[in-house]
Amino acid sequence: MSPPPRKILHVDMDAFYASVEQRDDPSLRGRPVVVAWRGARSVVCAASYEARVFGVRSAMPAVRAERLCPQAVFVPPDFTRYKAVSRQVRAIFAQHTELIEPLSLDEAYLDVTRSKSGLSSATATAEAIRAAIREETGLTASAGVAPNKFLAKIASDWRKPDGLFVIRPHQVEAFLAPLAVGRLPGVGKVMEGKLAAMGVATAADLRTQGLAALEERFGRWGRRLHQLSWGIDDHPVQPDRLTLQVSAEDTFERDLTLDELEPHIRRLAEKTWAGHQREKGRVARTVVLKLKTTDFRTLTRSFSPSTLPASSRELADVACALRARAEQPIGTRYRLVGVGLAGFVDRDGFVHQLGLFKSAGLTD
After folding, report:
1. Does the annotation count 107 as an active-site position?
2. pLDDT tens digits, residue range 72-113?
3. What is the pLDDT of residues 277-310, one digit of tens each?
4. What is the CATH number of the domain that holds 182?
5. 3-class DSSP assignment, residue 60
6. Lowest mean pLDDT: which of 104-113, 138-147, 157-166, 353-362?
7. Contact predicate 112/97, CB 8 Å
């Protein structure tokens, strides 16, 4: 017998950072609030729904947000407060399930197939969570209920803000049929354009292509597209997702040349190294240097040394050396630099493997 369908929630706080600011400062309520530092290089961290009416969105340049909404109130972000509220919300989740997969401070997946709270349904659990968030934090959250993660995430956005939407197992195929392919996870503007050229605009259109044709055209991704069009997603909620990368980056007030980046790389390496040290029992194999040019092209260069960096200084040395692989015209200027560590592995296993390599004469 096949197992019963999972009961997955996706809970997403509404305009989280901006809502915290409006909660804590009554003078901001009902006004367009933009959480961002002012400045030519600043980007919007969050926008209240009053600001979104004017087209202001997260991650857009703050100067553009100001042009779109001159009357907006700009508030510098206070991540200490946001993290404190996020911990409150996480504690509410934990009353219902231990299977919690945070995606950020303001959203998470929950598997409530077997709810600790003993409520009659996943819908009742979502309602209880939203009510507790409102009562304990004074904020609102939207939630989606579905048999899998990707559908739950789509559902949570269906009735924002302060909404709840449920997709039951028998409704999945009909719900997806008219859905624009751009709403499917992993389908960005480029892929959407490729599908449009094939006459595919909706999930129903995808289904007509058939698995074989999609695989022939897109390889493994074609299989995934086929599965998504039918609502198939077996990815479990992962409460203890392993870190894939730790990094720090900075955008400059003025664009810098490659030679001017070293002090910034060394400062960021210290932040990255501190994050790496919190990964108990795991080490990173790969040093990553990220650069963004004046014309917004992003370059990533990486290197996996045979001997792992033993300090922030050694990490910075490797990252600085990676500048030589930027391969850009002399005089190119950069608006952003980032330093990261990736390729995390178990420390004991790596040390054992390295010992074997050394004994075989395969390392310096």
Report:
1. yes
2. 999 999 989 999 999 999 999 999 999 999 988 899 999 999
3. 877 777 888 999 999 998 888 999 999 988 888 8
4. 1.10.150.20
5. coil
6. 353-362
7. yes
Q: How many CB atoms lie within 10 A of CB 280?
A: 6
Together in a domain, 307 and 342: yes
Residue 5: its pLDDT value, please?
A: 84
Share of the chain above pLDDT 90, in %: 67
Phi then psi for 7, rounded to 5 degrees? -115, 105
Which of 107, 127, 279, 327 does the annotation list as catalytic? 107
How far is it, in rounded angstroms, from Cα 252 to Cα 249? 10
What residue type is assigned to position 308 of the chain? L
Please name the residues in contact with 165: beta carbons below 8 A apart, sequence gap of 6 or more: 143, 144, 145, 155, 156, 158, 159
Length of the chain: 364
Q: Which helix or strand (DSSP H or E) is residue 246 part of?
A: strand 245-257
Do 181 and 264 have their domain in common? no
**Considering the chain, what is the average pLDDT of its residues?**
89
Specify the pTM.
0.72
Range of the domain at 34: 16-79
In a domain, 234, yes or no: no
Alpha-helical segments (H) within 254-321? 262-277, 312-321
Token pair belonging to 310: 């033993």
Digit-coded pLDDT (tens) for 20-70: 999 999 999 999 999 998 777 788 999 999 999 999 998 888 999 999 999
**Helices and strands (DSSP H and E) totals, the chain:** 14, 12
∠ CA 183-185-187, nearest 5°, is 75
Residue 170: both structure tokens together: 């028998």
Q: How far is CA 176 from CA 50, 195, 345, in A?
A: 30, 16, 38
